[in-house]
Amino acid sequence: MTQALRFVLIQLSAIVLSATIVGLVRWPAIIWAVLVAGMSFMASLRWHDGKWWRYIHLVFPFVVLLALFLPVDPLWYLAALVLSWMLFGGVLRNRVPLYLSNTQALERLAEQVPQGARLLDLGAGTGTVLAWFVYHRPDVQADGIEFSWLPWLFGRLRLARSSAGWLHGDAFAADLAAYDVVYAYLSPEPMSLLWEKAQKEMRPGSLLISNSFDIPNAPPARVCDIGDWKGSRLLVWKI
């Protein structure tokens, strides 16, 4: 069961249970929000993996209550939905949020990329990795693919005058066979799928490098500490 589906089920259960209680004693709506927030928060301690889900459960009922009482034109909600999809469309498709690699990560990554290699950045965001390699490692042919429209458009403008290849599409539909190094800063959810794809498509001796996220039951050949405030690591697998 995906984390998003768990969120929906927990919220619905808390809403039904709290609505029954509130309906019986006729408490005001704010009490309903407090009950839903409390119930869903407690449930998330057991049923959600990431700590940040707990705070979404805690805040969500109050956001809904605020939206119901504010005199906001519904078109603004539609605009917010469209904007969110354009910015975070990868979350819905592959459960991959928008992560941006910092300078320390890029420096460590460059140490792993052989001279004259061809590099593919899966889920390339706003083109940060490609822009860095174009400037600091011009010997590397860097390509990237991004699904969400707004980050892709920003990257398109950013890389317009560079030699980097910039594609719009699903990262898991990209052909990995032509690349010496594939770099991914995704999320824990799709890592098993990425490993299967890499084993099928990448050439022997090529490198798969993940920022921060492990592949279950596949120990990396080496781990490089990035040294940032998050304690991030680069995990390197040799195909």
Automatic annotation (TrEMBL):
Keywords: Membrane, Methyltransferase, S-adenosyl-L-methionine, Transferase, Transmembrane, Transmembrane helix. The chain crosses the membrane at residues 29-45, 52-69. Coiled coil: none annotated. SUPFAM superfamilies: S-adenosyl-L-methionine-dependent methyltransferases. GO terms for molecular function: protein-lysine N-methyltransferase activity. InterPro entries: FAM173A/B, SAM-dependent_MTases_sf. The keyword Membrane applies. The keyword Transmembrane applies. One of its GO terms (biological process) is methylation. This is Class I SAM-dependent methyltransferase. It comes from Iodobacter ciconiae.
